[in-house]
Amino acid sequence: MIINISDLFLSFIGGIMIGVACSIHYITKGRITGISGIYYGVITFNWDEFYWKLSILCSLVFSTGLMYQIFGDESIMASSSLAFNEIRQITSLSYTIAGISGLLIGCGAKLCNGCTTGHGFCGIARISMRSFVAFGLFILFGVLSCFITMSEHKEDGEEKYNYNHVSIIMIGLSLVLLSACLLGAYVNKEQFIDTIVAIPVGLLLGVGVVFSGMIKRTTVLSFLSLQQWNPQFLFAVLGAIVVCYFGFRLLNKPLFDVEFQYPPTKKVTNILLVGASLFGFGWGMTGICPLVGLALFPQFTWQVGLMYLGSVSMGMRIAQCYLNKYQKVDDQVLEFNSNNYIIKNDNEQNDRF
């Protein structure tokens, strides 16, 4: 077991920041902050929610980029570990592993309707049975996957670029896109408040991811590893859940909306079990969830920025195609049962006469 008290303290503080971000989003707009759903809305150009969703992602990238400029290869506290992984620890990830991991995570997140933020932080804080089951499967299959693929984790990769310059470029790009989102939301009045709220949510998520150590894939892999277990990630989860638990119960209705928005079902379904298992297995291969994959843009690598996130996008689209087909079959069954019910009622009524 590896324990660094300073790292545990920072993880808990980072978790609190993530919890505050999720609570702000919930209190103001009544939304669960699920990064996988937000990411899917952006890549599919869902214009009804596009500007505020892209604003969260841009604010997240801006925040982690700024943190990288401040800390870079240094520690946040004197006795803590480095704030970011060295670039070699990210580029050591093989393209094959990154692609398979992203595909499984994309499919899994879409099938189980959530990821580490939606289920792990917000869902557990809401005392949702679906989220307890999903997050438990994330960890279970993450541990299994981490054990199986441990031999594929290389020690060092390559560092081809000056990442101080890369992070500055990502900061500038995120500001340009954020300005475009604000302009678009101003024109489209319905999304303006949502976009304004999204900015502090994304900024806090970015700072929280860095402080908690989740930005380092080695933090998650060491938590999922049975050989050198490190509880740092657990403290981040606890910090976020504690804040969300109380934050979600402050108001009876959101400040800028009519009612709170909850997932469409509370049932633990087979699709949830399959999706959470796929997500967990993919997560254990790389130690990167959608939140972290997006937060790593200031440390842009082809393995994460292109292969991993591209595969996540592909996995989500594949899963959505399946869900669309499954939903059509489900609707047909419901319609068939409904027709039978009507016929039965008619027959019963005729028998009475």
From TrEMBL:
The keyword Transport applies. GO terms for cellular component: plasma membrane. Coiled coil: none annotated. It is a multi-pass membrane protein. The keyword Cell membrane applies. The chain crosses the membrane at residues 7-27, 50-71, 132-151, 163-185, 192-213, 233-251, 271-294, 300-319. Its main location: membrane. It is found in: Cell inner membrane. Keywords: Cell inner membrane, Cell membrane, Membrane, Transmembrane, Transmembrane helix, Transport. PANTHER family: INNER MEMBRANE PROTEIN YEDE (PTHR30574), SULPHUR TRANSPORT DOMAIN-CONTAINING PROTEIN (PTHR30574:SF1). This is Sulphur transport domain-containing protein.
